[in-house]
Amino acid sequence: MTKISAAVIALFCSQFYFSQEKSTSNTKEKQIEGVVITKTKKAVEQKADRTIFDFSEQPSLNSGTVMEGMKKLPGLIVSDVAGMLYQGKQLAVYMDGRPLNISSNELNSFLEGMPANSVERIEIITQPGAEFPATSGGAIMNIITNKNSKKYLTATYSGNYSFTNDDKFRSRTGNSINLNARNKYFGWQINAGQNYRESLMDSNQDNLAFINSDRINRGIFAKTAVTIDLGLDRLLLNYDFYKNGGDTNNASSGIYEGNPYTQNSYSDSENYRNDAVLMYQKKFNDKAQKLDFKASYSQADSQFDQQNAAQAQNVLDNSSVMRVSNFKVDYSQPLKILDEGKVSFGGLYEKQNYKTASFNSLNLDYQKLNAAAYLEFKATLKKMDFILGTRAEDYDISGTTYNYRNNRYEALTDFKKFKFFPNASLQYNFAKQVYFALNYNKKISLPSISVLNPNNTTFSGPNSQSSGNPNLQPTIFDNFEAKLSAVDYVFIGYNVSVAKNQVVQKISRERDVISNSQDNVSELKIHNFNVGFPIPFAIFNTPLKELMKFDMNPDKLNFVYIYSAYQLHELPDISTKGFWVFNFMAQIILPKDITFVANYNYLTPNGNYYYFVADKPFSNSLNVNISKKFMDERLNISLFADDVFNTQETALHSVSAVPNVYLSSKNDSRKFGISVNYKIPTKNKNAKIDPNLLDKEKKEDAGLIPGQ
Q1: Is this prediction's pTM over 0.70?
Q2: Are 215 and 200 in contact (CB under 8 A)?
Q3: Which pLDDT score is estimated for 545?
Q4: Residues in CB range of 599: below 8 A, 6 or more apart
């Protein structure tokens, strides 16, 4: 049976391989009255350094918010405790090639306030090369939102509505419109939208406090871009604006100092973000030779207030302002080395300032100066690909914080360091898109803004005590990986990440008060073994002779994709257990070209996530989606249901101190809804486009917003 299964998987791989060979031979772009014909982009692509998930043509992913779509990706763990982990690696979140520089609650609010149908694809870069900042830590999640302009006006509307009905009926809506145009001189793009979300969360803090949070979140965004052709060269201008806010009614009850209590409170949050980018691309006759200059500025403002019903004034009044400016240069050209090669080098200078205040009184003034330069070589010799590079980083971090215990301002622990961060890769190609790769890189992760912030709390109650730690030190990572991949869909891999001074969350209890703190751990190792493969349903009712004809269309296949991983966190002071991750995604093509997709995620309980043990699975949900295209594929309608059996909840206990602290929470995660995507007809009747048809590897055809 094992041999038959292996043969079936191999056969499926060959189906994809030969069909791609056939598509490749026919993908010469053909211009007919303004229509560009190319091949359709895959739902998932496995590359040596990254995994790419397409969102734009996946109704099962783009029917809600970005956060909801991310939680359905195989191998990705999203939780308030573990943060964002992919194959055991902590993720730094980028958007259109630029780091967001936010984390924790602000990051969750940002991603929950952005419609998933505004995202084209998500790239998870598990092996960041020397051209990426060394502060990328373990891995990078790059959210690509832009779509290329065409030589005519195009317009696309996307909208969705969903509802939950736990204790009462709650609604969620999202709407966005994308306008693109281009002529022989310049192109422009506007992508704008809004999001409204009602939600519920019930939480239990060690049977001391029970909190019911009824939330309403609202968000708007606008992304604009202009690209101007200057001969062979190109000038790109971008401005993005995001606003997210929310109101929460908290009804809490519990025990404090042996006495029962009830408390009703109201909290309000507002977050603003402005990004501006100026980029000049110098082009050469050799398209493989590139020179880019990019300057950017980003500012994020946040305000959080909480007022208890029994008091006439706020119990929390926290604000922050972050400003980041940088300038970078990147150059690459072919190099005559071995069979063929390439050299890339560049530099970066960045300044970041972050200030927080409580009741308008400054309590953190943080400044980071960073200068960097990198050099990387790539070469090919017969079936072998080589990458060798290094990045030099110079850090100067300083600032002041207010010590509430001593009632005085104190200097932060300075961090001044110059260090090299090497990377190396070796890949052996057995055949086209079938390879074995070995990777290594050294990275650094600076403590996130949220854990440095002394105001790091979103709820004040008698049993809760939470604050940031402005004296945390950076984490140094050594990342190792071995991976065997075949035709994007079949892979098996193992990676280990060794982190020194890892920042971890610890929760402890003293009498009736639960404290949440951040600390550095001397060393942490995360082992991750993962495997993924598809099984086409055709093997159960199609003779082997017919399967061997290689005449099946992979885009019309009925199949189930299986992803599995085992992860183990090794800590220096406690014994830990690993856990399994399972993801099953099935696609069935029904009559009338109706597509049915079911996605099931499950993580086994009782495993360690740093200093927490999961009493229930962090992920346990079944999501289904039915979609169909109408009006010559201009209109796409999807019906969806998330967490069908209402099994998604969080239950864990902390093992960082005695006694252990038990925490649990349940959101109204079961929802039902409809999603619509409509390509609005324009004056050009031939303007029928699909953003997925673009070849993203051709940087000279890159979109308006950088980061492709």
Answers
A1: yes
A2: yes
A3: 62
A4: 60, 72, 583, 584, 585, 586, 622, 623, 624, 625
